[in-house]
Records
---
Amino acid sequence: MAPMAGVTDPIMRELAEDQGADLAFCEMVSAKGLSYANERTEDLLEVGPRERLVGVQLFGHDPAVMADMAQRVVDLLGDTLALIDINMGCPARKIQTKGDGSALMKDPALAARIVEATSQAVSVPVTAKMRRGFYADEETAPELARRLEDAGAWAVTVHGRTAQQMYRGKADWSTIARVKEAVGIPVIGNGDVVNGTSALAMIEQTECDAVMIARAAQGNPWVFADVQAALSGAPAPAAPSPIERIETARKHAHMLSAWEPRALVRMRKQASWYCKGLPGASIARGALNQCVTIDDYDRVFDAIEDHLRSVGQEG
Ligand SMILES: Cc1cc2nc3c(=O)[nH]c(=O)nc-3n(C[C@H](O)[C@H](O)[C@H](O)COP(=O)(O)O)c2cc1C
């Protein structure tokens, strides 16, 4: 499961792992924020009670700070840390205008220095996540990936859109294929994988070594069971029933509440993703947006389930 700022909380990661995700990433973490011991930045590094492995993604542009903070993350997370990923893809204005995220695609020499400094500083694998290029229609990912491989990157993830493209259009999977041809390290394909069928199609078209899923995992941990079944040639598992979806949303809310009650406000959007497409979803969204306590969520989930039963849609 991909890193998603404001979304991939520890409980979402645990539920993804329960459904077969091999690795889930935390939200991107500011190396600079960590270096200032910013409490809210450090909170992003908390792991869930059942989490066995997590990928941590750092963003920043100063090689020395990135290397120091990677070491901090290793010290903090110990064996739970699978790898450190460097964000080279975030297109958000407030990130890339500071030289972070996708701005690194415009400066491959600096990007390589960051990977070099970081991989020399830590014992865990260091990876990088990039886009197809920075400017619209530009493809710099294969050349950047080659440089990062030389600098010590253990793997690269490629999202087949440019930074200027943001989320418009379709991800160009042929970029992933060209990166795969350019390097010997593992390549993780990303962009528009929504189920087992599209995961297999990406692997077939690009020969990538793994797939990373972001938006299709929102309110949908079952996507990982679907992908794992497709990868092993097993029949697709049955889609969750509407009641199962609501019960999983309830479980997510209760686990979040037990872990960190302040995180419950973030459950609003998570809950509306679980409800997406269900009868009454738009009414539910309004009610969910008022929820503050776990009891509030329980009341709304009860009401949605009553509604589903009344329209005969529970199964
Ligand atoms: C809400 C949201 C937050 C995201 N935050 C991050 C992030 O913190 N780091 C990152 O590398 N990519 C981030 N992304 C990009 C995703 O990881 C992924 O590359 C992109 O959504 C394409 O994959 P998809 O088609 O499976 O959604 C974010 C995407 C979304 C929708």
Note: The mean pLDDT is 96.
---
Amino acid sequence: MADKALNRSGQSLDQSLHDHLWGYRDTRFRLNERGVVELTGHRYDMSGTEMPLFWPFVQDILGHEIDPTDLKSPNAAPVVPEPRPCPEFRRAVETVLAKDRVSDNAKVRLNHSHGQTSNWELYQVIYENLERVADLVVWPESTEEAKQLIQLAGQHGVCLVPYGGGTNVSNALLLSPAETRPIVSVDMSRMNRVLSIDETNQTACVQAGITGSELERALRAEGWIVGHEPDSMELSTLGGWISTNASGMKKNRYGNIEQIVEKVTLISPRGEITHHDSAPRRSAGIQPRDLVFGSEGNLGLITEAVVNIHRIPEETRYASYVFPDFPRGVDFMLRLQRSGVVPASVRLVDNLQFRFSQALKPEATGLKAVEQTIQRTALEKLYRFDLRNISAATVVMEGSRSEVSHQARHIKSLAKSFRGVAGGSENGKRGYMLTYAIAYIRDFLAPYYISGETYETSTTWDNIHNVVDSVKQAALDLHAKHNLYGNPFISARITQVYHSGVCIYFTHGFSNRGLENPLEVFIDIEHGIREAILAADGSISHHHGVGKLRQRYLDRVMTSTSRSMLRELKHSADPDNVFGIGNGAFG
Ligand SMILES: Cc1cc2nc3c(=O)[nH]c(=O)nc-3n(C[C@H](O)[C@H](O)[C@H](O)COP(=O)(O)OP(=O)(O)OC[C@H]3O[C@@H](n4cnc5c(N)ncnc54)[C@H](O)[C@@H]3O)c2cc1C
């Protein structure tokens, strides 16, 4: 199959999406007339349902009442600085790109000047103002156009910033006020074609601006999948995944992005960075390809990649297990990893995260209510679990029917040996799918003066509890330090398992009511938590990347020689710093 084009309109913004907040306009959590939380729209399994436990849960955990009528007002008239003029560049660009693929509209420019870092850029864009905004936005459609664009930027002294889905959570798209050149955001969304499928070698050549949902839709229509499913897959793009070193929920079966991508093309101001052959592995010295992973917009435009594809699995089966406590759940995860029979996805939530997901359940009625009461009673009376201690694992198994059946039997018996009690496939599926709706909760709670942020890290198996305990303690200490209302919400999940360790994902919520200088406090909290992670020997990031948010810690994880080598490599590919976004080692 060749050239599977997907429809995207010209320069206008995608009207189905929120301007700055997460996700689709048809979907949002809201308190309805009866004071009950509901999710609007029809997009997700939980859309259209009421969640009567959620509002009381939030107040209970945060330890204070929330007045539903007292809402923080967003900045109704954001100030968007006038664009810095670049008339010659613009004239030249309009000979390459059709006029409707070049825009200096203020709203369009603002939308292209931030990612999704909650307590920093998103807070600024909603409640304050961004200091620096892109001056122009352009939409290339092909590698050839991208090359010409880069050449023109070099000639006219313009700074280019690649824009994928704008979903990064590392301030990677935050623009520096110190950048005096005109900044041009290069929106890759029109480069969203599956160019070809190689059925024999099971690969597809794909343009880098394709989103995860577009990619899966296009491939599924032909009987294939990639299987890369980051929680942001509806909006994040192939180019974004490569440049941030992304990780998908089903990495155990399909790999992280660096295993999925066989070949990648990046256009730098000095030319193409790629390799010519299509072999699955090569011993050809240091691979320039590897520099593209994690390049965070610093080196050039990723225009296309060859990715591994797989036949749509015969079966996808979900399961869930409840464990008496988090340590028992961790022991189960380790044994599962060691057993070698690891399902596509297995994730473990701590007690608070478990209760959070329970609070998002619709009200059970009739038989369902009876069933839930029996389950709860059985856990407490029969299995002697303390509901304030239990943890839960959700499992996704994918493959042939026999493979899935084998995994299911194995996981069930292993869970049992750690006192795991089966929670059913419905709960497993719910836990997996919940992840797509959860992103909207941050934006629901923000107007009630509740800040939400996530932190992720990786660490070795023997250090999990140290990292988790350190972060939880840091959240408490920071809460006290800044004299915040009530209590913090701080939960932990293990979202990925590896031979030698895991990825740990934290969700942090706290009240920002009464703060005179919220942004300063958020920044201090962000740094306090990251300090705690690093001091406990967690990594700087498992998959969110460095961007500008974690830049200040790079010296602690990278020698100055490594950093200067990277800078010199960048200089050789981009001597005039056309790609001057200044992320990671290049800030
Ligand atoms: C709700 C939510 C859930 C998330 N879940 C996950 C998850 O499960 N796993 C995970 O790994 N991450 C996750 N993330 C983070 C984010 O989705 C990833 O970092 C993603 O890879 C960013 O892709 P993007 O297309 O949105 O890139 P953008 O945010 O647009 O850009 C990120 C960086 O990449 C550069 N870039 C983008 N496209 C190109 C290109 N074509 N060429 C060169 N540079 C480019 C940009 O300049 C920027 O520096 C999540 C984020 C949110 C908000």
Note: The radius of gyration is 24 Å.
---
Amino acid sequence: MTIRPDDMAAFKAVLDDKSWSTNADEIAPHLVEWRDRYQGRSSILLKPDNTEAVARIVRVANDRHVPLVVQGGNTGLVGGGVPDAGGGEVLLSLKRMTAVRDDVSGDGFSLGVEAGVTLQAVQETAKARDRLFPLSLASEGTATIGGAISTNAGGVHVLKYGTMRSLILGLEAVLPTGEIYHGLTRLHKDNTGYDLKSLLCGAEGTLGVVTAATLKLYPALHCHAVAFAGLKDVADALALLAHMQEACGDRLIAFELIPRFGLELVSCHMPRCRDPMETAYPWYVLMELASSNQAEDLDPVLEQALASAHEKGMVQDAVVAASEEQAEGLWRLRHSLSEAQKYAGGSIKHDLSLPQSRIPQFIQQVTEQLAHRVPGIRPCIFGHLGDGNLHANFTQPEGADKAAFLDRWADISRMVHDLTVEMGGSISAEHGIGRMKVGDLERYKDPAALAAMRRIKTALDPNNILNPGRILAMPGH
Ligand SMILES: Cc1cc2nc3c(=O)[nH]c(=O)nc-3n(C[C@H](O)[C@H](O)[C@H](O)COP(=O)(O)OP(=O)(O)OC[C@H]3O[C@@H](n4cnc5c(N)ncnc54)[C@H](O)[C@@H]3O)c2cc1C
């Protein structure tokens, strides 16, 4: 199936010449996703720069029953923002919608931005006004606010500030039938019926095109302390988390788990990454304390908390960053993990959350079961331990055939997801469902929840034109 010439003409007719392209070279980067797992086809890219134009596009799509695929920075990891291989889906990019619409409001704790603004640009705008926008991901230089809202993105500061959903005060979106939902409020409290912004957040573009948002800002963080600790096992990492929370309260803003294999990969393959310790440990934790109080010295607080953790046997060794440069170097180890795995061959990846107390048992069982099934498989299990969120990745055995290993993705994931759900966890902590996990959602989600989700999709998008086939398969379409 391809896009019909009369449908193409109908889109062009409602847009100015800068707002669409049929140039294959311009379209090409939008057709492949970051992990190279999905390669799509589409012959037209729509790139409006205002909400009215988005609404006109959606109306044409709805009237003519043409599927639209919404894309922001294209850093999503579940294939949701890339058109399918059929060639019949029209690409709608929000990347030209980059205005900061609303300067910091009277109280200085909110910011209105359009959907195509990158997370990094929002962070910098907030910083320039002595404020903090706390959402932080390794992809923040490219990921957009619209994408972060649509995936309810998480990242490294969820422990203190929550996911994207808790950082939105108001939202503007074009609904699948073309109406504009004007919800750009700055209110912290608004109990006037169903909360559409919360529904659209995490809907992965299936219920509306997010065009702008009012974001919640926090006081800027003026002092930081970062440490890297070597541990003997994951149970100690959890004990250390509780210990640090008790000792440091809400000054603990990040707590990330890193395995030895992950540290070896980044030290070996990534520029300016080196193992900060002389002795090797099976597990590491990267943690950060921060405070908005300029006068607070956090290094002694962190050192003292780590010293008592060491006395109690939770920590084998620790390094506290002595400068901003060293702190950046420690964070680089964490942020380089995803990229570094590419150098070790194929990797089968999962984005899970578990009740924290089950994490050590999960890691032990999944590792044993997979070693039995694929001798030599190399687990690289890391992530946001403070949120119970593990990126449970499994790298091919050394020297194995990459394609043959990746062919086992479905089989291995079934085992990993079955164990996750058996232990009370979720098969998607922060990346979403996209196209990758539609079958998994069908298998594991509560049937009543699935049926309600389908009814919501049908009510808002009766012609199934927005991101069809993402999150839910819709029988009859
Ligand atoms: C190296 C790396 C690290 C990452 N780390 C994290 C992490 O720590 N935490 C985390 O949560 N994610 C992480 N991600 C995943 C990804 O970066 C986030 O999900 C991000 O929020 C996606 O933003 P985007 O603009 O790139 O969206 P895209 O990839 O363009 O789209 C993602 C989904 O949102 C939809 N969408 C995009 N824009 C809109 C819009 N305006 N309206 C409606 N729907 C829209 C798309 O259709 C698609 O379904 C990481 C990705 C990479 C590559």
Note: The mean pLDDT is 96.
